[in-house]
Design goal:
It is built from ten helices and 13 strands. By secondary structure, the chain is of the alpha+beta class.
Length: about 425
């Protein structure tokens, strides 16, 4: 790893901000973390646009999407949503496809619905059973090294679920929560139905099953709900952690956490599913990502140990305390499917990184209100020379402008990582 410096804190305590845009009338959208402050069911009954703040009309969102020069992946499915704005659109259709270990976000969500962890508490101790210990020895799927009889807290097991993507931990938590993985899977599907995920079906807790399928649009709905769970948010944002009895630091499979402004959430890869990523990132209100290149995540220590939330490195990401932020969530599925899990992961990191870079670079400018001097009209309605969304960002001059910054390989001596394999949910 290129240094375990501090990383984005999940709980930033920032107020949302109002973005005023003119589309005949002035429409106000409230973005940032304030949009996530409601209850877990505050997004209504699960409609496609619920929970987005309803900030812009469909016409304004369409204009915004056209003005952003986003490098949408040319394969698989992609869906992006901006808090306080709504959907920026989707690409690749809406046919349910395998999602691999992205399914573990629902696993964590369902566990926390039944067993919430308030105030950062570790939760009850859970005994590792023989099945989870035996599965830890598997070389055909991603697992976490645990032994029979070991006692770990609910929080520690959530870390082993989401960071190294332990399939054995997913099934252990399912048995602990519901008595059997089958019963737990029924709870997962009920939760999906409540969130309006109409094209999703879970057939297991880990995501290794090829008939666990969903769409990018459905998974965005889950991401929106998952971000309202403080523990899930914090754990998914950890670069690494220490779990007693587990050798070495436990490293997150999500390499994009090395990018300033990236907050999570979960990788997934398999030969049938390709590379998949559910992600969340912040953009700055006034421009950039609130980052200082080279040291964007201010220099505290990385999160180590259960319960760490990354607060030791400061909360500003190098942009100054209290700066307004917009939260962007997205899902990219099916990158380099039917190759190897590693090829799929590399592709999804590269393409998602390019999307995040473009959004952090261009979204703040695209959302800037048009001044009267620019539009030629004080009313904001314009006479054809102005725009509801302010000045258009300049198109990148070369294709390289869209390329994500290189991410240094992350390697720690003795680090717990899933083993590579050709078939199954690697991460």
């Amino acid at each position: 790893m290129a240094g375990l410096g501090s990383y984005p804190a999940w709980v930033r305590g920032r107020a949302g901000f109002a973005a005023v845009v003119a589309v005949g009338l002035l429409v106000t959208g409230v973005g940032g973390w304030a949009a996530l402050a409601g209850s877990r069911n505050g997004d209504g009954s699960g409609g496609a646009e619920s929970g987005t703040g309803g900030g812009l009309s469909a016409a304004a969102r369409s204009e915004l999407a056209e003005r952003l020069h986003l490098p949408w992946p040319d394969e698989g499915q992609t869906s992006i949503e901006v808090e306080g704005i709504g959907s920026l659109g989707s690409r690749g259709g809406n046919r349910p496809v395998p999602i691999a270990s992205v399914a573990k976000v629902m696993t964590a969500y369902v566990v926390l619905a039944s067993h919430p962890l308030p105030d950062g508490r570790p939760g009850p101790e859970i005994t590792v059973d023989a099945a989870a210990a035996n599965e830890a020895l598997s070389r055909s799927e991603s697992t976490a090294p645990v032994r029979e009889g070991q006692r770990l807290t609910q929080r520690q097991l959530l870390e082993l679920l989401l960071l190294p993507s332990g399939n054995n931990i997913a099934r252990l938590l399912a048995r602990w929560d519901a008595g059997s993985e089958e019963a737990f899977t029924r709870k997962m599907n009920r939760a999906a139905e409540e969130l309006g995920m109409t094209r999703t079906r879970y057939t297991g807790a880990s995501g290794i099953e090829t008939d666990t399928v969903s769409t990018a649009e459905d998974q965005v709905k889950l991401a929106r709900a998952a971000l309202k769970e403080p523990v899930l948010r914090k754990v998914a944002g950890l670069r690494s952690t220490e779990v007693p009895g587990v050798p070495g630091p436990v490293v997150n499979t999500n390499r994009l956490l090395d990018k300033p402004g990236v907050l999570g959430l979960k990788t997934g890869s398999s030969t049938p599913a390709g590379g998949n990523l559910m992600w969340a990132a912040e953009t700055d209100e006034a421009g950039g990502a609130g980052r200082t290149d080279g040291s964007g995540e201010s220099g505290g220590s990385s999160a180590q140990g259960s319960g760490a939330d990354g607060g030791g490195g400061g909360e500003g990401g190098g942009n100054g305390a209290g700066a307004a932020k917009r939260l962007v969530i997205g899902v990219v599925l099916g990158q380099r499917a039917r190759t190897t899990p590693m090829e799929g992961l590399e592709a999804v990191f590269r393409r998602t990184g390019a999307l995040i870079d473009a959004l952090q670079r261009e979204l703040p400018t695209a959302l800037a209100p048009t001044s009267p001097s620019r539009s030629g009209s004080g009313s904001g309605s314009g006479s054809g020379s102005g725009s509801a969304l302010g000045p258009a960002p300049l198109a990148p001059r070369t294709a390289s402008a869209l390329a994500p910054r290189a991410l240094a390989p992350r390697a720690l001596p003795g680090a717990v990582r899933p083993t590579a394999h050709l078939i199954g949910g690697r991460s």
